[in-house]
Structures are given as structure tokens and as C-alpha cells.
């Protein structure tokens, strides 16, 4: 089958990356395991919007919310989708409301899905109000970049962790150059913005709360989807 890369997610403490892809025909989401590495991504030039032809093997023991887990074999990496086609794939899977996308389990006041009652999936595409987009840097020994946004339903989400590998790298460059105001203006100037919201693996926070935490896996502004223009 033909798949398109929609998410390339970073890990804070190692060089692995987590990819998610959508079936070009029916938009089913898949997450190949084991994880790829940054070296492989660079070697093959893998980016969001890239098409791969591969055989997908379901993992029968995959459990909620990470039902997208699979094995991917016989992969042949092909060309990049154009912006219009990539936007079209995202649009087919998009929701106006985060709460609706995650069946009420994730809201602006509930960023962590409970470990004993997770939703039926872990990745969804959300339409976002471009003017609501803003980035901030939280200093706590290391720079933590956070994204605030409002979904099309009007619900505001503040200080969302950014797991998107390419976007995170782009933002770091702007921070180093002291150009954060310029970057926020670029974000707000998009005509259409989509965020691929994902749920982490089971994690216990510093407060002791355990569950699956919301993060921004992919951030795309159109026209000229974001990381390809920076």
C-alpha cells in the first residue's frame, strides 16, 4: 500500500524517532515499530509529506490508545507529495474540536488520558485557528518550547509540549537568533493550520499522575507547509 508520512516525533533522551503515516487511499493511521533512528531519517531523506510503498503488518497485541502500532516491511521510499495533496490528506482526517476527536477524554482541562480508561486511538488531526498560535520558552534548566493554540471549536490549549522533530529544530534556530516574535508572526499568518495531536506512551509525571499525555506530533501551516519553508 501507499502511505504518506504525517508525523516524525522526537524523543528527549535518545536518537530514536517515532513515525506515523496515513494510508493514501483510506487515511488509516499506522505507527511502525520498532522505532526508526534520526540517522535513518537523514539517510533516506524522510520528511512529512513523503510517500512510501510498503507492506503493513498489524500488531495483534496492540492496545488502546496505541492501536496504530504495526510493523512495516518491504518499504520503498518514493517522492514527496505536493502541498495541495498533503493538505488534502490532513483535511480528510481533521476535526474542529480536540474534545470531539478524542471522544471527550482529552480537553483543555484534561491533558492526560487516564491509564485505566484510554481512548480508542492515540493520534488525531485538528484544525486550528491560525491567529491563536503562539510559542513560548519555559526555562527550567533546559529550554522547553511550548505551543498554545485554539481549536476551531474555540477551546484554548496552553503550553502544549512539542514532539514534532522538524518543527522543534526549526524553532530552536529562531530562538538562537533571537527571532521569536518573527516566528510567532509567521505562525499567525497561515491560512490553514493543522496539528497532529498525539498521546504519549504511559508516563508518570512529577506530580505522580500517570497516563497518556497530549503532545503536538506534527504542526503544519498552509500555504507552503511550515518546515519546508523555514
Helix and strand arrangement:
Elements: E1 2-10, E2 16-23, E3 29-32, E4 36-37, H1 38-44, E5 50-58, E6 69-80, H2 83-92, E7 94-95, H3 98-101, E8 112-114, E9 123-128, E10 134-139, E11 143-150, E12 156-161, H4 165-176, H5 180-188, E13 192-199, E14 203-204, E15 210-222
Parallel strand pairs: 3-6, 7-9
Antiparallel strand pairs: 1-2, 1-5, 2-3, 2-4, 5-6, 8-15, 9-13, 10-11, 11-12, 13-15, 14-15
Write a structural description.
The chain is an alpha+beta fold. It has one domain. The chain contains five helices and 15 strands. Strands 7, 8, 9, 13, 14 and 15 form a six-stranded mixed beta sheet that branches.
Summarize the structure.
This protein has 230 residues and is α+β, with helices and mostly antiparallel strands. Helices cover 18% and strands 43% of the residues.
Properties at a glance:
six-stranded mixed beta sheet; five-stranded mixed barrel; globular; alpha+beta
Strand residue percentage: 35-45%
Q: How far do the termini sit from each other?
A: 31 Å
Shape: globular
Tell me the total number of β-strands: 15
* Assembly type: single chain
Alpha-beta content class: alpha+beta
Helix content: 10-25%
- Succession of helices and strands: EEEEHEEHEHEEEEEHHEEE
Tally the helices: what do you get? 5
Instruction: Provide the gyration radius in Å.
Output: 17 Å
| Tally of structural domains | 1
- The average pLDDT score comes to 93
Q: Biggest β-sheet, characterized?
A: 6 strands, mixed
Unreliable stretches: none
Amino acid at each position: 500500500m501507499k502511505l504518506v508520512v504525517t508525523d516524525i516525533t522526537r524523543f528527549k533522551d535518545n536518537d530514536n524517532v517515532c513515525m506515523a503515516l496515513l494510508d493514501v487511499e483510506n487515511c488509516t493511521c499506522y505507527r511502525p515499530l520498532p522505532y526508526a533512528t534520526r540517522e535513518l531519517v537523514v539517510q533516506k531523506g524522510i520528511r512529512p509529506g513523503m510517500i512510501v510503498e510498503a507492506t503493513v503488518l498489524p500488531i495483534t497485541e496492540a492496545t488502546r490508545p496505541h492501536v496504530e502500532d504495526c510493523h512495516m516491511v518491504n518499504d520503498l521510499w518514493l517522492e514527496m507529495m505536493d502541498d495541495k495533496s498533503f493538505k488534502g490528506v490532513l483535511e480528510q482526517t481533521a476535526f474542529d474540536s480536540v474534545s470531539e476527536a478524542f471522544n471527550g477524554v482529552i480537553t483543555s482541562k484534561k491533558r492526560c488520558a487516564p491509564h485505566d480508561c484510554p481512548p480508542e486511538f492515540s493520534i488525531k488531526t485538528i484544525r486550528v485557528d491560525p491567529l491563536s498560535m503562539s510559542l513560548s520558552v519555559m526555562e527550567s534548566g533546559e529550554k522547553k518550547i511550548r505551543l498554545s493554540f485554539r481549536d476551531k471549536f474555540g477551546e484554548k490549549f496552553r503550553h502544549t509540549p512539542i514532539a514534532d522533530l522538524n518543527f522543534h529544530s526549526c524553532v530552536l534556530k529562531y530562538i538562537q537568533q533571537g527571532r521569536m516574535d518573527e516566528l510567532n508572526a509567521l505562525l499567525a499568518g497561515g491560512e490553514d493550520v493543522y496539528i497532529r495531536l498525539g498521546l504519549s506512551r504511559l508516563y508518570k509525571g512529577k506530580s505522580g499522575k500517570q497516563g497518556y499525555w497530549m503532545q503536538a506530533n506534527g504542526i503544519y501551516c498552509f500555504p507552503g507547509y511550515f518546515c519546508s519553508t523555514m
